[in-house]
Amino acid sequence: MRKIGVALDLAAILLFVGIGRASHAHGLTFAGLASTAWPFLVGVALGRLALVVIRHSGTSFTGGLVVWISTVVLGMAFRVVSGQGIAVAFVAVALGFLGATMLGWRALVAAIRRWRPVSQPPDLAPSSGGRQLPSS
C-alpha cells in the first residue's frame, strides 16, 4: 500500500499543478510542469521521509496531515527561495486542493478497511474463543 500511497500523493500534486497551469494559460509543457511541481515534490518527499524517521504510517490520517502540510509549507518556501513567488490565494487553493486529495484518499482507504469483513483463519473454530479445540 505504501507505493500506491506515494503514487496517489504524487498524482495529487501533478493534478494540482496541471489544473493550475491550464487555468492560467501557462501551458502544459514538460518543462513548465516540472518547474511548477518540483517545490511541492520536494515537500512531499521530505514529509514522507519524516514519517519514515518517526516510523509512522503514510496511509494513516495523521500521516496524511504530516505529508499534506509539509507538501504545502515546504513547497511554498521552495517557491519563494527559487523566485517563483506566492500569493495568499495560491496558498489557500494549494491547502484546499492538496488537503482534499491527499487526505481524501486516506479517508477512503480507512472507510474501506472499516467496512471490509475481517476473515478468520480456517483452522480456528468461531465457537472456540480463538483457541483450537483438541481433536478426538
Tell me what the structure shows:
By secondary structure, the chain is mostly helical. The protein has one domain. Helices cover 70% and strands 0% of the residues. The protein has helices at 2-23, 30-53, 61-81, 88-115. Helix 1 runs antiparallel to helix 2 (30-53), helix 2 (30-53) crosses helix 3 (61-81) and helix 3 packs antiparallel against helix 4. The longest helix is centred in the C-terminal third of the chain and has 28 residues, at 88-115. The mean pLDDT is 87.
Mean pLDDT: 87
Main sheet characteristics:
none
Q: Supply the helix-strand structural class.
A: mainly alpha
Distance between the termini: 43 Å
Percent range of helical residues:
55-70%
Features:
136 residues, mainly alpha, 4 helices, globular
A few lines on this structure:
With 136 residues, this protein is mainly alpha-helical.
Secondary-structure blueprint of this entry?
Blueprint: H1 2-23, H2 30-53, H3 61-81, H4 88-115
